[in-house]
Amino acid sequence: MEEKKNKVFGLLGKDIEYSFSRAYFTEKFKKLLLERYRYVNFDIQDIQDFLSIITKEKENLGGVNVTIPYKESVMQYLDKVDKTAKKIGAVNTIKITKKGNLKGYNSDVVGFDKSIAPLLKKHHKKALILGTGGASKAIAYALKQRGITYLFVSRNASKKNQISYHQLTEEILDKYHIIINSTPVGTSPKTALSPNIPYQFLTDKHLLYDLIYNPEITTFLSKGKEKGAVIKNGYEMLELQAEESWRIWCK
Fold first, then answer.
1. Contact between residue 199 and residue 223 where contact means Cβ atoms under 8 Å apart
2. How many whole angstroms separate alpha carbon 13 and alpha carbon 15?
3. Does the bond joining 118 to the residue before it have cis omega, within 30 degrees of 0?
4. Among the CATH numbers 3.90.550.10, 3.40.50.10860, 3.30.70.20, 3.30.365.10, which is that of 7-106?
5. 65-76: per-residue pLDDT in tens?
6. pTM score
7. Helix axes 235-250, 20-31, angle to 10 degrees
8. Secondary structure in 3-state letters for 130-141
9. Which residues are identified as catalytic?
10. 191 and 219 in contact (C-beta within 8 Å)?
């Protein structure tokens, strides 16, 4: 992407002062000597405010990342949605096309898949996805592409491929060796919290993956490590999805 004029990129979300993206891209722009580029937080309390951001920034807007809780609801405001993002049902990257249209993509799926791939073993055939938000949909898509079957775990299980937390038994955890936390439970400052799963049934066959990166080792991951499970947080996924967003904006 050439530096021809001022460019604004940003993260759309709610209560996102902690933003990884802002610090990451600010540093990236410095390294690339893109002095006229800046990355800001578009912190809004209602998705309806999205259009006012577009109107205000459209002339200089280079691209938008989307985080909780707008990865699904933002889709109604887009002119186009990439085929993969449409299948996933969630968008976390918005490109402003040459015609000025808004096109949605999902770079979460790339970030998650590349970051978990080196940890997968032959016995990792089934996964539990904790949470049913926008990020969980990208995870489900990536797992499906790899032939890994999955169940969503939800506080309000209502669909065919969902179960509730109280339904998690030793028998289920003996079959589902990948457990992915896509909920915000356990993130700073409420680091003592963890998803309500039966940790006593975890073994060294399990792989626990937490999309949270702050703290580095959440209580969820710590409890898994105590049982010998392989653990990974979401920091590498964030870096990879950020780079994929940049690739999308620049193409």
1. yes
2. 7
3. no
4. 3.40.50.10860
5. 999 899 999 999
6. 0.92
7. 60
8. ECCCHHHHHHHH
9. 71
10. yes
Residue bearing tokens 């010998």:
228
Average pLDDT, the chain: 95
**How far apart are the C-alpha atoms of 157 and 1, rounded to whole Å?**
44
Q: Which two tokens stand for residue 199?
A: 């940790």
Q: How is residue 217 written in tokens?
A: 């080792």
Compute the distance between CA of residue 239 and CA of residue 21 in angstroms, rounded to an integer.
Answer: 9
We find that the CATH architecture of domain 110-236 is: 3-Layer(aba) Sandwich (3.40)
The total of other beta-carbon atoms located within 10 Å of residue 188's CB is 11
Euclidean distance between CA atoms 235 and 81, whole angstroms = 26
Contact 63, 93 (CB under 8 A): yes
CA distance 50 to 33: 29
What pLDDT is recorded for position 2?
A: 53
Q: How do residues 46-89 score in pLDDT, each as one tens digit?
A: 999 999 999 998 889 999 999 989 999 999 999 999 999 999 99
Residues of the chain above pLDDT 90, percent: 86
Question: For residue 187, which of 233, 154, 121 has the smallest C-alpha distance?
Answer: 233
Does residue 78 contact residue 95 with C-beta atoms inside 8 Å? no
CB 174 within 8 A of CB 158: no
Domain ranges of the chain: 7-106, 110-236
